[in-house]
Amino acid sequence: MVRLNKIYTRTGDGGDTGLVDGSRISKASHRMTAIGEVDEANCAIGMAIASLEDAELAGRLRRIQNDLFDLGADIATPDGVDGALRIVEAQVERLELEIDSMNAGLEPLQSFILPGGSTAVAALHLARAVTRRAERAAVSLAEQERVNPQLLAYLNRLSDHLFVAARHVAAGEGGDVLWRPGASRGG
After folding, report:
1. Taking each helix axis from N to C terminus, what angle separates 119-144 and 30-51, rounded to the nearest 10 degrees?
2. SS3 call for 52
3. How far apart are CA 21 and CA 75, in angstroms?
4. Left, alpha or beta for 102 (phi > 0: left; psi -120 to 50: alpha)?
5. Are strands 24-26 and 113-114 parallel, antiparallel or unpaired?
6. To the nearest whole percent, how much of the chain has pLDDT over 90?
7. Is residue 101 over pLDDT 90?
8. Are 139 and 152 within 8 A, CB to CB?
9. Concatenated DSSP letters for 60-111?
10. What pTM was computed for the model?
11. Higher pLDDT, 4 or 118
């Protein structure tokens, strides 16, 4: 278990930070950008949880928040470190099972969906968009350095999970808000 007695250390005042293996890197590096984007995705999921009435979905999302700390640790540990905490295939597969379960009762899409309808639906769509940004940052890191391919798969599946979760919640509130191409062109 992690134990933090002191919140500030002053060791990062020069613009660098420590990784799990003890090495130090720039806070502006691809690795730190990916860690920060994952942290922001986790916060956005927390906001979505706060707006949900569905206790089962909230529980799934809390488990995902825990996974995202694992994923952050995975990113913060360079390749080749023995005993490192890594995202594993079973975590990706769990997301897929949850997506399939939520999607089973939904009508097929007839149009693109606008991110709104209720606070909970909008919050889930925002979390999805932030997760996509985290995925892009992790892919950017993977183009520079070797990373665990399961963490990339997890982030990709997580945005799908959040999309289907938003649709699942919207279905209980009257349905998706659909995009109507050209609807506001005037006339």
Report:
1. 170
2. coil
3. 11
4. alpha
5. unpaired
6. 70
7. yes
8. yes
9. HHHHHHHHHHHHHHHHTS-TT-TT-----HHHHHHHHHHHHHHHTTSPPPSS
10. 0.91
11. 118
CA distances 74 to 68, 98, 129, Å, are: 9, 23, 22
Residue 52: both structure tokens together:
């949900």
Confirm if 125 and 115 have CB atoms less than 8 A apart.
yes
CA angle 66, 157, 59 (to 5 degrees): 40
Mind listing the pLDDT tens digit for each residue in 20-36?
777 786 677 898 999 99
Q: Which residue in 179, 64, 61, 163 sits closest to 121, CA to CA? A: 163
12, 39, 184 from 15: Cα distances, Å: 5, 19, 47
Which residues on adjacent β-strands are paired with residue 26? 16
Contacts of 187 (CB under 8 A, 6+ apart): none
Going by the DSSP 8-state scheme, the letter that residue 26 receives in this structure is E
CATH code of 25-78+86-175, in short, is 1.20.1200.10
* Number of other residues whose CB lies within 10 A of the CB of residue 127: 29
Q: How many CB atoms lie within 10 A of CB 138?
A: 27
Q: What's 107's DSSP letter?
A: P
Residue 178: both structure tokens together: 């659909």
